[in-house]
Recover the amino acids of this structure.
């Protein structure tokens, strides 16, 4: 999964980013609304964590603009306001959930999982294609009934492919899904991860094909 955190408290932001990256996900951090607006224009995210009080405005303004453009990316609001009226207004603006500061990071993890499950429309969003299954919440890939141990980036790569089998993904598109803007790596890293994933899929009904000048595609025999 790829997350966007909009939070100006650097200490809290570092803690949240560390927690999410430790779980194998990718996260971009925007300390201001204007930064967040740029991120959502150029990138795609599975979940946005949004603070309300930001240096250049109110996070609710960002949420309002985000929904006005018919963007369906789930949003969890991080707020210090605990009054019922405040929480109701956030939900009415289009927030999928909220968590009141200060919060336990385990609770934030649970709320993220719950929102992502609701987005997928199932309690256990296991994706199956041929003899391969992938659980994006648990991060488990199963090939021919055997669980396969993958590294974090490999998990994110198979997740991207299985969300859209038959679609060609350019190197740049895959790079955006696997890495944050702060990662100091080149697009050539995609070739390495594709190669590793191909080895794990050997003998299965799935294969990753290369389309010269275009990118890669997950095919099903």
């Amino acid at each position: 999964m790829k997350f966007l955190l909009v939070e100006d408290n650097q200490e809290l932001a570092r803690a949240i980013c560390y927690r999410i990256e430790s779980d194998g996900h990718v996260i971009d951090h925007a300390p201001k609304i204007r930064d967040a607006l740029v991120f959502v224009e150029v990138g795609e995210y599975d979940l946005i964590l949004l603070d309300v009080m930001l240096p250049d405005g109110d996070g609710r303004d960002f949420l309002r603009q985000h929904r006005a453009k018919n963007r369906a990316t789930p949003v969890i609001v991080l707020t210090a306001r605990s009054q019922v009226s405040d929480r109701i207004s956030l939900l009415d603006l289009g927030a999928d959930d909220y968590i009141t500061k200060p919060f336990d990071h385990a609770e934030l993890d649970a709320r993220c999982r719950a929102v992502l499950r609701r987005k997928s429309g199932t309690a256990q969003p296991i994706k199956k294609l041929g003899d391969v299954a992938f659980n994006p919440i648990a991060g488990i890939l199963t090939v021919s009934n055997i669980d396969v141990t993958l590294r974090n980036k490999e998990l994110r790569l198979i997740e991207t492919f299985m969300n859209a089998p038959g679609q060609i993904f350019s190197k740049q598109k895959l790079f955006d899904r696997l890495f944050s803007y702060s990662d100091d790596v080149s697009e050539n890293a995609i070739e390495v991860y594709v190669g590793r994933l191909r080895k794990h899929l050997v003998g299965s009904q799935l294969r990753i094909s290369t389309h010269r000048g275009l990118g890669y595609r997950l095919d099903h025999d």
Q: What stands out?
A: The two ends are 26 Å apart (CA to CA).
